[in-house]
Amino acid sequence: MLAQAAGKIKALSPQLKGAFAKPFVATAEILRFPRDMAAERVVDAPAPGRFTAYFTRSRREILKIQRLRYRIFSQEYGASFSAPFGLDRDRFDRHCLHLVVRDNRNGEIVGYTRVLPGDRLHRTGGFYSSGEFDLTMLGRLDGKLAEIGRTCIHPEHRNGAVISVLWARLAQYMLENDVRYLLGCASIALSEGYNVAAVNQRIQARHLSQAGHRVQPHLRLQALPGDAQADSVKMPPLLKAYLRMGAQVCGEPCWDPDFNCLDFFVLMAVEDLPARYVQHFMQPAQAV
After folding, report:
1. Alpha carbon distance 78, 260 (integer Å)
2. Each residue of 6-65: pLDDT tens digit?
3. How far, in Å, CA of 38 to CA of 11, rounded?
4. How far is CA 159 from CA 124, 153, 162, 244, in A?
5. Which of 42, 160, 174, 200 has the most beta carbons within 10 angstroms of its beta carbon?
6. What angle do the packed helices 237-244 and 161-176 form, to 10 degrees?
7. How far apart are CA 248 and CA 182, in angstroms?
8. Predicted structure pTM score
């Protein structure tokens, strides 16, 4: 099934064969990653347009990433985590692949997510999401897994272009490495005034996974803020992006008091990538 999905996606974009041919080159400033991390294929995308998506191991760039994460999660979410020197870093960082989107006009990093390949779990003790959810159901999934997390977009670049570039590179990563499922947490900041009850109601009605893929949160809010019966529902941009890419929500959200947010566990299968988005997202680096 994975091979069929890959063939379908590649057929939608004849230019894809050579589009990601540039080899990944790490800079001289390398973090102390496990030696076998190099086995993961992380080929750079070309940069004919304004934005470029690529995986980095540069210490300088990862420090920029951690500053961006801290700024967004502390200022917008009201996160109360301990972060020395204004950096959001944790024990998972050194085991993850760091995917960034660079603005080619000024060299700034404007988008980010990290990828934890499933074959690194012996080093981390589990996925990050396992700290918030009972992930027993993952043992029933057939195929390679990878977790994405800490996804964030610079406040001045939330018009859709940057997230499109990011998702395109993630889709390419799935195909390059035969990853069948992406999983992770999609967050709603409680400080931003979303009608969380209505968002949850919409998700449970339209985007809920099959019963065999459900997870249980370790920590629930007794009552979700907002009116579940509201006529209109405003979805947070990142959560909306996950759903548009074919992700399913696997149950009720977990409350994360450190980040002052609610996290929905999402699961995305490569064969569920919508064709209408695949064709658009596989060539985003050409966008201006």
Report:
1. 6
2. 554 444 433 333 333 333 322 222 234 444 444 455 545 444 589 999 999 999 999 999
3. 28
4. 34, 10, 8, 15
5. 174
6. 40
7. 11
8. 0.80
Please count the CA atoms within 13 angstroms of the CA of 128 that sit on its side-chain side. 24
Reading the block at residue 119, the tokens are 């074959």
How confident is the model over 177-186, as a mean pLDDT? 96
**The two three-digit tokens of residue 126, written as one number:** 């589990």
Interatomic CA distance for residues 272 and 242, integer angstroms: 12
Segment 138-156, tens digit of pLDDT? 999 999 999 999 999 999 9
Give the domain ranges of the chain.
2-286
Closest CA to 149 of 98, 203, 84: 98
Q: Dump the DSSP string for 237-253.
A: HHHHHHHHTT-EE-SSP
In 3D space, the residue among 273, 234, 239, 268 whose CA is nearest the CA of residue 253 turns out to be 239
Q: Which amino acid, one-letter code, is at 148?
A: I
Specify the CATH superfamily of domain 2-286.
Gcn5-related N-acetyltransferase (GNAT) (3.40.630.30)
Report in angstroms the alpha-carbon separations of 39 from 98, 144, 286.
15, 15, 28
> How many other β-carbons are positioned within 10 Å of the β-carbon of residue 94?
15
Query: Which of 283, 12, 270 is CA-nearest to residue 143?
Result: 270
